[in-house]
Amino acid sequence: ALGGGAGGRELMFYDQRGGGRSKTHTQDPITWETQVRDLVDVIREFGLHEPTIVGYSFGGLLALLFAADAARDRTLPQPAALVLIDPAPIARRYRDVFEREFARRQSGPDVTRLRNELNASGLRASDPDRFRQRTFELSVAGYFADPDAARDLTPFRVAARIQRSVWESLGAFDLAADGRLASIRVPTLIIHGRQDPIPLASSEECANVMGAQLVVIEHCGHVPYVEQPAVLFGAVDSFLRSRDRLPRIAESE
Asked: Are 18 and 159 in contact (CB under 8 A)?
């Protein structure tokens, strides 16, 4: 989808394969390489020259994987900059920490209270659509600094088979240790909510290795566009404006 952005920027959104409206019926394994190839195809299909890639959650990790591949293969589209919003963990050890923390939150007293309130509300019989909507919201409440803020969300689902296949394809990954992060030489902004169940240490290590700008948003979990939109969009706009002011330097190969 195309949309007008702040400052006259054009924004392009796409659903990754297996998520949202990008349905797939193939039984072939969908891997992280598949997702990178899809991103390359989108960039080429629309003739985007040196785009700024904005990745949220797994999209942030995907942006890093793409940029690392592009750094090694100059025939691929080259990104001008990266904006990573609460990116998925850069290493398996951080992924393990996230999974334990998210499970703890989902079974904790706050989400349990909200789940009990829903079950006692009678919505299952009186308003099945609203009941399904609220069930979705509670399934992601552990991502929020305040689970009560998980309301009026747009449902977005990724096929479990695809999600499992992609993470399995990454194996015991560590983008810092294997040199992929260090190979990325484009300006990068990383934004991370202080209370995100994805450990802040993952984004801190990513920023340190890449020399990236890191903005930590206080009182915010994994959903800053709901929890702290003014801070989020202010940080992104400031980064992009600083990029706009940089002089253009001709490069020779």
From this structure: yes
